[in-house]
């Protein structure tokens, strides 16, 4: 029985065998061409898309108005004549710096008055109104340059001084800033940064004998300000039983959040936060920017403190 031999393989394969590889080559070339075309289209898109599209753009306020003075009033606890006297002080100071003396694009100072009871604090102490009033003021004046919070028990005493020049000017801050100093004296291991420059500062605050003071402070408007206020007003801090409520919460976040400490300028108390009595801090002297009626807790007590200064500030305002 004979078996057929299998066909011999030729050493010269027919042309169609070589042609069988061409479709694969075409596919690879097409992939390269397609990838190059896609890359070209992406490049065209990147070059022609609107500026800033797809990127976060920080908010830069126009600076109109330059300063908003914020005060939160407790109308349920203090009498109207006393509070009206405080409001009048703010309004007259703002008028000295342009409010009501120009058209719609006025670059004068503005005032914002918050009220205890206007905001839902979710059971937190009423003093937290101070913080939420500042947040509210930023929504009313989104293009302001600075927010100056000043306690309801205080007068502005020197109308010649301005926030821009006396407090927030970079060169002025260089001279004022207290560096490498405990945030909560005397024992806090967290200290103010020693390397900061005046242009780095977005939050200016003072200390008294009890620690950090929230009676009078200045915030530079911008993205950081909104972050800072949202952090400070966090529901967790409001629900925590801090002895001094929002002031101790402020001390907490300054010590535990380097992002806050890196924008903080600690300045001498006399800069914008002197007291009517010297038992808790620096006592007021002639020419100081402000006076705080520290220690008063009723209309009778606070009005008695205010009467020591009301004629003085009215006289100063009339003479300028």
From TrEMBL:
Molecular-function GO terms, alphabetical: alpha-1,6-mannosyltransferase activity
PANTHER family, per the entry: ALPHA-1,6-MANNOSYLTRANSFERASE MNN11-RELATED (PTHR31306)
A matching Pfam family: Glyco_transf_34
Transmembrane segments: 30-48
Gene3D superfamilies assigned to the protein according to its UniProt record, in alphabetical order: Spore Coat Polysaccharide Biosynthesis Protein SpsA, Chain A
Gene Ontology biological process terms from the UniProt entry: protein N-linked glycosylation
UniProt KW keywords: Glycosyltransferase, Membrane, Transferase, Transmembrane, Transmembrane helix
Record's GO cellular component terms: mannan polymerase complex
Protein name as annotated: Galactosyl transferase GMA12/MNN10 family-domain-containing protein
Family: Belongs to the glycosyltransferase 34 family.
